[in-house]
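Re: [help] complex structure
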Amino acid sequence: MPVKSAKDLLEKAARDKEFAKQVLSNPTQFKQEYALTDEQLKTISGAADMLSPDAAYE
Amino acid sequence: MNRFHKHLVLSLGRKGLGEASLGIRLATDLQDAGDEVFFLAHDSNAKLFSSDFAHQLFPSHASPFFPLYLSDCLESFAADSLILSDYFTTTLFFESFGLHPEVLVSRGRPLFAIDTWDYEKVSDKIDLFVSGCRTVSLWPDHVIPLRPVPFLQPEPGRGAYRTLPVRSVVSEQKRNGLRRTYGVPAGAKAVLFCTATWQHAEYESEAGRRMAQSLPRLLADFLAAAGDQVHLVHVGPQAYPLSERMAGRYHWLPALSPGDFDALLASMDLLLSANISATTITKAMVLHVPVLVVENSVAAGSLEQAMAALPHPPSALLESWLRQSLPLFPFSLWPLGYHRFLTPVLRNNPYVDALERVEMLDEATMRRTLATLLFDSVAREEHCHRQQIYLDKVRSLPSGAQCVRAGLAN
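Output below.
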């Protein structure tokens, strides 16, 4: 089975909103499948922790 | 020897195209100078990207992954610099997703920022609606500001650079054909009004929501009074219920591709704007289309307060509009405000000499200005001459590519 990468995860997250939500809610679950480095995993976990309501004043 | 560079441009604005347009103009300039450019952009800007620029888009729901998208881009595109298009929308994006500027700074590249508002001159507090205030998080220790002219002051040496769109030539035949397509008959006058997504947003401020809905009604009343040959062409994400008010002379179009939009703008007799910083204004100037900007400096919680601020007793129409639109708050960027915030950059700025600014409640001046700009050919020529003087001043500034290269050399 070809090894998937973080790039594949990003492409799928862009296409599939539900998948993006799943990754943000439990990034560890996707570490092996997408060969995520500890740094990448930390970045995703950090992003999930910091999510705040969208700023409206743009 | 001239060394060519690679630049990664970030266009993270999500509710308007103006900021990304500035990035595209800068990127065009850099490409013309021999450099390579790649865009990483929120997909709301997709309409602006043609095959001219390599780009990667990401949607809102994938925005929390931004640091990974950035790493991915930098892996395949070894950029010498990062360019924020623009500074403000990038800081908003970072704030929304709890990101720290270190996400950018840690990449070890010079960080240029298109500083649309000139943060050295304005306050970090933006006036919003009636009494709201938004404090902007700035990164002065990290960014090299690039100051786009228009609409900032043409001050060489402070990172001010010329950013003028290319003038598209539209033949008389195409112009007439386009006007017919959009519902404007021969001999009529066409006034263009453009809105962005953020001007239709459901803001928390009730006064903001009311003003967002009511200003188009007032403008339609002014245009209807200017004559039954005056048509309003509106380009924006949603139509306004103005057909009856304009007796069928209101024509709505959704957002257009840049080429189609330029052809439409070139076919208009007047650009009417309620956003003094709109990038469309510069496009109009380059196309010799007169520009009328509507602003409001009156704060009024009651009809009495509003009446006291009027230069003349109001018409029945204006009085009726006021009753439905209170409270009033000052704005230079309708419907948000930004009136106090933008005052320092508009003071002594030759940009304002190249357009007409009219107060929203000044009926007499509004009617006179509309009549002049639409029907008086001598006045229109004089207006376009002022635009030309201003544009010549802008053309004497360094290009964006020259400013970026100077920044890289330091």
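The two ends of chain B are 16 Å apart (CA to CA).
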